[in-house]
Structure formats: C-alpha cells, structure tokens
Write a structure and sequence with these properties.
CATH topology of one domain: Receptor-associated Protein
Order of helices and strands: EEHEHHHHHHHHHHHHHHHH
Distance between the termini: 86 Å
CATH superfamily of one domain: Type II secretion system (T2SS), domain F
Structural class: mainly alpha
Largest sheet: 3 strands, antiparallel
CATH class of one domain: Mainly Alpha
Shape: elongated
Radius of gyration: 30 Å
Number of strands: 3
C-alpha cells in the first residue's frame, strides 16, 4: 500500500485535491470513482530519504495541535501557528508542507500519511479515525500520549544498560593501561640486569606487546562484525534463523516476547480506543513486531478475527504467548472493553520486563566486578612476582 496525490472533479464539476491510500494508481482511480469523483491527475507520493526529527518535537506537535483544536481553531490555522514556533528546520518544513496540503483540500490524515518516515505508520490511521468520529482533538492528545509512553519504554530499556556498560568500559581501560604502560616498567628492570623475567610477568608482558602492536585490529574486527551482522540480519533467511534461535533460548525468549507484546498491545489498544477498525488496527499492530518468527505466529490472527473468532481464543490456543494474555483479553471482550484490556496488558508486560531487566542488571554488576577483579588481580600478582624476583637476582 502507498499514498497517491490526486486531482479529481465531482458530478458538479468542482475540483478536489487530496491524498489517498491505495495499492496502485488503478486502485486509487477505482476508489475515487467509487466516491463519485472522476480523476484528472493521480501521482504517487514518493518519499525521499528519511527525515531525522527528534521524537520530542513530534510529541509536542501533537499536544499543541490537540490543544489548539480543542480551543476552537481550524486545522489550517492551528498548523500555521505551530509552524511559526518550530525551531527544528527539517520539522518546520514538514509542518509547512502539511499546511499547504490541508489548504489545498487534503484532510490532515492524508497529509500526515505522506510523512510516515517522520510520524510513523500509526499516526495517520488514528487521525483518520478522529476525523471520521469528530474527535480529532482528543485523538491527537491520545496519539501524543502513546508516543510518549513508547519513548519512555525505550529509554527505560537503554538506561538499565548504562551502568554495566560504563563499569565494563572502565574495567577494560584499566586492564589496557596496566598491560601497555605499567607491567613493562617492571619487566624493563630484568632486561637491564640480563635476568629472566618471571613466567607470569612474561605472559602479561607478551599480552601487552601484542595489544600495543596489533590493538588496532580489535576495533576493526568489532566494526566488521557489527556492520556484517547488521547486513546479514537484513537478509530474510538469516534473520529468520536468528529470530528462531532467540525465541528458543529461555532468557532471550522471555525478554523478546515481553518487549514485542508490550509494543503490540499498546499500539493495538491505542488504535482501538481511538476508533480505528479492529482489522485495520491488527494489520498495523503486526507491523510494530520486529521478530519475524513472532510475526508468523501472529499472521493467522487477522484471518481468525475476520471469520468471527475471538482474539482471546487465538492467544489461549497458541503456545508462545503467556496464559495471562488470553485470560485478560477474554475478560475485556466480555466487558466490551478490548482496547482498555490491551492497554492494561501492555502496562503489565512492561512492568514485568523492567523488573526482570533490573534483576539481570543487579546480577550483572557483581559478575563484571568479580571478573574484572580476577583479571586485574592476576596482573597485580604478576607485578608482585616481578618485585619479589628482584630480591633473588644474583649480582
């Protein structure tokens, strides 16, 4: 599916411009004719290279737009006011383009849909539901809250890794300094006296020489492994193998499954609460899943919902998903509050994931400290053996 810019005329001969979503130009023309409009010009909206806009600018944009619309301003007037206050040059151009499209006859959802690289694949569908229900202001606020929660979830995952990474980095730097600069000072004394260096000191000395001469190879190998791994992961076959292995290992399975279900439930619940039709929301919810094997598990869900089966029954009858998911969704379906039930599940999975990560990081800290202490202790021992060896030198 893509977006197409169109110019068409209705039965009275009036000209209309806008953007619609279709699979091809022929499909776009068919949709226009179904709406009793006759296409004059249809052009595919081709996105240029992705525009990099900080997420906080987008969140603030939706909050501001919601407040202005709730205050009674029209969409074009609100966009004009927001555009004049933008400090980010790229995003200012995006807002200006949105204003031009809206003033040219397009609705806000169609204009936002042209910038999925900026606003994401969910925003335009939620906005379209708000336009159809006449609740655009509240929907925009809910969209901003959804993006804010998603950002907070991502930042919590990153922040939980900061301290162990810093600790490991400082430890490795200390080892490098000892190997390259400190231990060779003791070994030099033995060389000057033409004496044999103690075995442990010699091992550390050889390791330091190797690191000093060929240490540049390590970052090169790391970079090659990183970029090579990224390239290999983009290949569907390789990605499927890695994703399958990840879901088979107990710890990685737990972490990946809870992370994916947090995003899926929050995205799906937010869209359902905003009035997006369930089948459309499911298609978009599956797009936020990153694990290809988990996507395959989710694929039959759309078909089962379409033929009248319940969502709770699907999750109860499939093994990868926690039992709590099917139970809570069944309760939500019986109460007619599926969107709220999904949002509750997303909060539950996020809390469980954060609690598990906190425990892992708590365990990882002493492991890193003990491993570092063993390595640095061995180095210090090699230096002490060199010091004690000086007393045994025969002059």
């Amino acid at each position: 599916m893509g977006f197409y810019q169109y110019q068409a005329r209705d039965l009275q001969g009036q000209s209309h411009r806008g953007v619609l979503e279709a699979s091809s130009e022929v499909d776009a023309a068919r949709k226009l004719k179904a709406g009793r409009m006759y296409p004059v010009k249809i052009k595919a909206v081709r996105s240029s290279r992705p525009r990099r806009v900080p997420e906080d600018h987008i969140i603030r944009f939706f909050y501001d737009l919601s407040d202005l619309l709730n205050a009674g301003l029209s969409v074009d007037r609100a966009l004009a006011l927001i555009g004049t206050n933008q400090t980010h040059k790229v995003f200012q151009r995006v807002v200006t383009d949105l204003l031009s499209d809206v003033q040219g006859g397009s609705d806000l959802s169609g204009a936002v849909g042209k910038y999925r690289d900026v606003f994401g694949s969910v925003s335009d569908h939620m906005i379209r539901a708000g336009e159809a229900s006449g609740t655009l202001g509240p929907i925009l606020k809910r969209l901003a809250q959804y993006m804010e929660q998603r950002r907070a979830f991502r930042q919590s995952l990153i922040s939980s890794m900061i301290y162990p990474v810093i600790l490991l980095g400082v430890s490795m730097l200390s080892m490098v300094i000892l190997l390259i600069y400190v231990i060779p000072k003791f070994a030099q004394i033995f060389h000057d006296l033409n004496q044999k260096v103690p075995v442990l000191t010699q091992i550390m000395l050889d390791a330091g020489v190797l690191l000093k001469e060929y240490g540049w190879v390590l970052p090169v190998l790391f970079a090659l492994c990183f970029w090579g791994g990224r390239y290999a992961y983009r290949e569907p076959k390789t990605r499927r193998i890695i994703d399958r292995i990840v879901l088979r290992l107990p710890l990685s399975r737990y972490l990946v499954l809870h992370s994916e279900l947090t995003r899926f439930c929050r995205t799906l619940g937010t869209m359902i609460e905003s009035g997006v039709p369930l089948l459309r929301a499911l298609s978009l919810g599956e797009q936020v899943l990153m694990n290809s094997v988990l996507k395959d598990f989710m694929a039959p869900l759309h078909r089962e919902i379409k033929v009248g089966h319940s969502m709770s029954n699907f999750f109860r009858s499939h093994e990868p998903f926690p039992a709590r998911m099917g139970t809570m969704l069944r309760i939500a379906e019986e109460q007619g509050n599926l969107g709220d039930g999904l949002l509750g599940l997303s909060d539950h999975f996020e809390r469980e994931l954060q609690r598990t990560l906190q425990r892992l990081m708590t365990l990882l800290e002493p492991v890193v400290i003990i491993a570092t202490a063993v390595v640095i202790g061995t180095m210090v021992l090699s230096m002490f053996s060199a010091i004690f060896g000086i007393n045994e030198i025969k002059f």
